[in-house]
Amino acid sequence: MPSVSKVLAGAMLVSGFAIGTCLAATPTSFKLVTKISLPTKPGHGDWVAYDPGNHDVYVSLKDQGMAVIDTKTNKVAHVIQDIKAPNTMVFDKDYIYETAAEGSGAGKVNQVVTISKHSWKIVSRVTTKGTSPDGTFIDAANKKLYVASDDNNWIEEYTLGAHPKFVADFPLQPAKPENGPDVAALFNGTIYATDDSDVETLDPNTGKVGVLANYMLKQSKFGGTKGMIWDPDHNAIWVGTTNHVIYVVDPKTLLIEKPIQETAGADAVMADPGLGLVYAFQSGAQGFDVYSMKDEKYLTTVSIGMKGPTHSGAVDTDNHDVYLYAGPAAAMYVYKPEVQSAMNAK
């Protein structure tokens, strides 16, 4: 298979495209507009996702359960309690697929938990083949659900619907990882997975690894390469890392086009195409970094001002609010880009 064993930051292929959907003014300040108390204890929760279909934000809570926030009222609308060690979730028009990830060992729960968006009740539980199911993503066109298994170094494929069925597993590289895979995603018909210090592509039809890039990152207990987003306007992928650098990467070769500073190691990476912004959520910075897609540069850091995990968040791409899981406060902090007040006044 084609491989990029070492991707050097000095060999950058910097692009200079423009995003037509961006506003002329790029916001560099953010106003805290509300704090939403979550039905959980302070500490490490996990994934946060915005659903544009119903304008809800989904939150994996600490230790157990998932909360649903109505972004129209910024209140917790539903709580689904019986999900142990909730990790990440993904959704289609009818269901949310949340992973329960207690890990290896006797009696540990490792499941895909399917929740109806109509009744807000759990409709099925499927035990995963591997343990510690982590990143989830969907191929809606082909009705496929994918789940990365941290402990087994593979991606599992399931059918979509009320009762997902296991189809296959796709082994990842390296063969003997130090930390294993984190989140993965499907961009433009190709699966992109992060694993240790690597990013690799997989063909969803065959499950075979295509291009593998090792960025030679120092491994922490949380790995090296983390969350990522695809910028289709610039045909680039942004890859967060634990090494205080976020990479802008060519999606075909996985060569680094540009390294950009992170205030601290990132976990989740999200985008707001309407404002042309990328957000990297970071526990070490107690908040999130903000970047310009168009200029491929760091803009600012927004901090909650207290120590504790802030490694996950989401963006309401309809009104551009940023939802940050403030772990030490057991709350969702909602920030509005300052450009919004000027935009709404027009």
Shape: globular
The CATH class: Mainly Beta
Named CATH architecture: 7 Propeller
Helix/strand/pairing class, anyone?
mainly beta
Q: Could you spell the SSE succession in H and E letters?
A: EEEEEEEEEEEEEEEEEEEEEEEEEEEEEH
Largest sheet: 5 strands, mixed
Q: Beta fraction of the residues?
A: over 45%
DSSP, total strands: 29
Describe this structure in words.
Helices cover 2% and strands 50% of the residues. The model is unreliable at 1-24 and 340-346 (pLDDT under 50). The protein has one helix at residues 339-345; strands spanning 3-4, 30-37, 48-51, 56-60, 64-70, 75-84, 86-91, 95-101, 110-116, 122-127, 133-139, 144-149, 154-159, 166-171, 181-187, 190-195, 198-202, 209-214, 225-231, 236-241, 245-249, 256-261, 269-272, 277-282, 287-292, 297-303, 313-315, 322-326, 331-337. The protein has one domain (3-345): YVTN repeat-like/Quinoprotein amine dehydrogenase (Methylamine Dehydrogenase, Chain H, 7 Propeller), CATH 2.130.10. By secondary structure, it is mainly beta.
Which helices and strands appear, and what pairs or packs with what?
Elements: E1 3-4, E2 30-37, E3 48-51, E4 56-60, E5 64-70, E6 75-84, E7 86-91, E8 95-101, E9 110-116, E10 122-127, E11 133-139, E12 144-149, E13 154-159, E14 166-171, E15 181-187, E16 190-195, E17 198-202, E18 209-214, E19 225-231, E20 236-241, E21 245-249, E22 256-261, E23 269-272, E24 277-282, E25 287-292, E26 297-303, E27 313-315, E28 322-326, E29 331-337, H1 339-345
